[in-house]
Amino acid sequence: MTLRGKIALVAGATRGGGRGIAAELGAAGATVYVTGRTTKSQQSEYKRPETIEETAELVSELGGQGIAVQVDHLQSAQVKALVERIRREQGRLDILVNDVWGGENLFEWNKPVWDHDLDNGLKLLRLAIDTHLITAHHALPLMIENRGGLLVEVTDGTAEYNAEHYRLSPFYDLAKVAANRMAWAHAKDLEPYGATAVSITPGWMRSEMMLEHFQAKEETWQEATKIQPHFVISESPRFVGRAIAALAADPQKARWNGQSLSSGGLAQEYGFTDIDGSRPDCWRYMREVMEQDKPADAAGYR
Questions:
Q1: What average pLDDT does range 124-135 have in this prediction?
Q2: What confidence score (pLDDT) does residue 37 get?
Q3: Domain of residue 104, CATH code
Q4: Other C-beta atoms within 10 Å of 213: how many?
C-alpha cells in the first residue's frame, strides 16, 4: 500500500485520532498538512501539551512529509488561506480528513437539553459541524480538480449504531449523527467528479486524554482494565489511521461512497491490524458483550 505522491489534509490533527490518522497517511508515503490550534508557542483553551509540530514530525519520521499549519477551522478566512497555500505549494489535494472536534470539555452526560449548559452545547455543535462544513467548502473545490479524491468525516458511532442509541446528551448525539449524514450528503455531490465521501468511527480509542483519565500510558494500557474492564476492547489512534490509509490506497474505494464505516469493519475488509497486531472490533463487542451485561472478555473480538 502506498500513498506516495498523494497530498492530504488532516483537519484537527493535534492529538488523538487526528494524530493517528496523519501518522498512518505519512507511513504510507503521503504529504500531510496537519492543522490545529496548539503549537509549540501557543496553546488552545484545552491547555494540553500536544502540538501540531509534534504530529508533523511524526509524519515525517514514518516516511511521509508532515507540514504543520496553525488553523482555527471556525475561521473561514484561515481555512481559505490554508487551502490557497496547499494549492500554491502542491497544486492538488487528494485526501481530506475532517477530524476537528474539541468538545470533550463541553458536553454533560445524562442531562436533557433544559439542564445542559446551553452555551457549551451550542459551542460543541459549532466545533463538530460548522468546522467540517467550512473546511469542506474551501477544500473540496481543489480536491475535485483531479478524479479519485477521498473525503473522510470522522465521528463517534456508525450510522446504524447511532440511529438506535441515544448518545447520552442531545448536543453530543446531534454532533455525532451529523457527521455521518454530512458524509452521505457530500457523497451525492462528489460522485459526478469521481470522488468518494465516507464517514468513519474508531472504536474505544486510547487517546492521550483517555489514557490520562485511566492513569495509563500506551505501553501499559492494559493496566486501565483494572479500572474499566471493558477497556480490553480499546484501540490505538493509529488503528483508525490505518483504516483511512487503506481506504485511500484502494483504487476501488468508490464502492464505499456515502457509507458509514468503522476502523474494526475496515480491518476485516483490508486485513490491517492495530499496532499490537490485533484487530479490535469494538462496535460488535459493545452490542454483544457490554450491552448484554456480560463479563469483559475480548476473545473473538480482537
A1: 97
A2: 93
A3: 3.40.50.720
A4: 13
22's CB contacts (< 8 A; 6+ apart) are: 8, 10, 13, 32, 34, 55, 56, 58, 59, 66, 241
For residue 39, the model assigns a pLDDT of 87
H helices then E strands: how many in the chain? 11, 7
Average pLDDT, the chain: 96
Higher pLDDT: 110 or 30? It is: 30
* Annotation says 166 is catalytic: no
- Count the domains in the chain: 1
Query: Residue 154: helix, strand or coil by DSSP?
Result: strand
Quote the domain boundaries for residue 94: 7-209+237-280
Q: How many CB atoms neighbour CB 209 within 10 A?
A: 15
Q: Which of 46, 161, 166, 172 is catalytic?
A: 172
From CA 56, how far away is CA 33, in angstroms rounded? 8
Q: What is the pLDDT of residue 264?
A: 97
Supply the pLDDT for residue 41. Answer: 87
d(CA 247, CA 226): 35
Query: Is residue 224 situated within a structural domain?
Result: no
300 falls within a domain: no
- Cell output for 217: 500510558
**Dihedrals φ, ψ of 262, to 5°?**
-135, 155
